[in-house]
Write a structure and sequence with these properties.
By secondary structure, this protein is α/β, with parallel strands linked by helices. The chain is built from 13 helices and 13 strands. The chain has 2 domains: 216 residues, Rossmann fold (3-Layer(aba) Sandwich); 172 residues, Glycogen Phosphorylase B (Rossmann fold). It starts with a strand and ends with a helix.
Length: 396
């Protein structure tokens, strides 16, 4: 069984989604004949760490024109890179080979892999989650327009013949969230599975029981509108009222809204914006925190949540988007948000206070770590993909 793994993101020891391709490739190579296709810009780093002698094909935009990304995702670079990948695979793949489009997968991003004669696996794919601007305290006209455009694009999935051809040509469709599953025409649901692409090295995780008194609260995120950092702060303020205690909130991360929020909440006591900090320090901060609050409304599997769970920090979040997959209800403090934001803040704060008063926090952390080990360890994810490959090979 020969597998061609398409991994736009494949960077050893970089953390987050940037290392997904690398981690999965290191598991798959143990069980199948593997060829990994990634960007030429990843070559130097990969060759430093390729102890398993994984077979890589480094591809650049050899077709048409070179568009170079500058620190962030660039649509036209991705488009031409995907076309270059297609031209390469068209020359080498056979009918019985499997092409697995793994990272940076979005149903609405362009690729040409469905034109190949091989078996095709998509995902885990995103694209179905929409930012509901009514779940934000304030949203710009730009955010509302983008949300409506995204909603329209999702609608076209059910009527656009290109999507139907893509799904018909796919042997398996893996999706990150139930929201993305909902936009897939029901006639293709038998091909679909839902799970996140994010993984962890579960062997390094230990359950630590400790005094669970609410004092130090933390959140880590890029400070943009959909992360709802203002609501994190308002939940914190409500908790101060409920507990009559001396609580502290640390906000880790940078972004375009950081200075605005710092000014708006400058009078809030025991609130600090730490900005961007080294990864090692984030782990130290998480281990020293009693609660991780996350009010984001759009995630395809946030690495921040995984890191909080790995460091025995209980999670409070909204039950929406990728948070429906992780953390589970029995492993976190969750509410389903409504369009009444004041009520969301009150309900989440009251639920946090109740959980800490009943001293069931250790159990939440144990359940979160058990979920990580069972479903998100890189070895387990590798086994899951191998099982899918074998089912496709058998014709199931």
């Amino acid at each position: 069984m020969r597998v061609y793994l398409i991994v736009y993101a494949c960077e050893p020891n970089q953390g987050g989604e940037h290392q997904v391709g690398w981690k999965v490739a290191n598991e798959l190579v143990k069980k199948c004949t593997l060829k990994v296709i990634t960007r030429r810009s990843n070559q130097k780093l990969i060759e430093q760490y390729n102890d398993e002698n994984i077979d890589f094909q480094f591809i650049e935009n050899d077709a048409f024109i070179h568009f170079k990304p500058h620190g962030k995702f660039f649509y036209f670079y991705y488009l031409f890179w995907q076309f270059s990948v297609y031209l390469y695979l068209k020359r080498v793949v056979k009918k019985d080979d499997i092409v697995h489009y793994l990272t940076f997968g979005n149903l609405h991003l362009p690729h040409f892999l469905f034109l190949l004669k091989s078996k095709l696996i998509l995902g885990p794919m995103g694209g179905g989650s929409i930012i509901d601007t009514k779940l934000m305290r304030q949203s710009s006209l730009k955010a509302k327009v983008k949300s409506n455009i995204h909603r329209f694009i999702n609608f076209t999935v059910g009527i656009n013949p290109i999507y139907y051809i893509l799904f018909a040509r796919s042997s398996k469709i893996i999706l990150r969230t139930e929201e993305t599953l909902k936009i897939i025409p029901k006639c293709f649901h038998k091909k679909c599975s839902v799970f996140l692409e994010t993984g962890v090295d579960a062997s390094a995780i230990d359950i630590v029981k400790k005094e669970r008194k609410l004092r130090n609260i933390i959140t880590t995120a890029r400070i943009i509108d959909s992360k709802n950092i203002d609501q994190v702060i308002e939940v914190f303020k409500k908790l101060v009222e409920l507990t009559s205690g001396s609580l502290e909130l640390s906000i880790v991360g940078d972004g375009p809204m950081k200075s605005t929020l710092e000014k708006k909440y400058s009078s809030v006591e025991n609130l600090q914006f730490l900005g961007k900090v080294p990864h090692e320090k984030i782990e130290s901060l998480l281990r020293g925190s009693d609660l991780f609050i996350f009010c984001s409304i759009k995630e395809g599997g946030s690495h921040s949540l995984f890191e909080a769970a790995m460091n025995n920090c209980p999670i409070a979040c909204y039950d929406i988007s990728g948070m429906k997959e992780f953390p589970k209800a029995n492993a976190s403090i969750k509410i389903t948000p409504s369009h009444n934001i004041d009520d969301n803040i009150r309900r989440l704060a009251e639920k946090i206070d109740k959980i800490f008063n009943t001293q069931s926090v250790d159990k939440l952390c144990e359940n979160a770590i058990a979920d990580l080990k069972e479903n998100y360890d890189w070895q387990e994810l590798g086994k899951r993909y191998i099982k899918i490959y074998e089912e496709i090979k058998k014709g199931n």
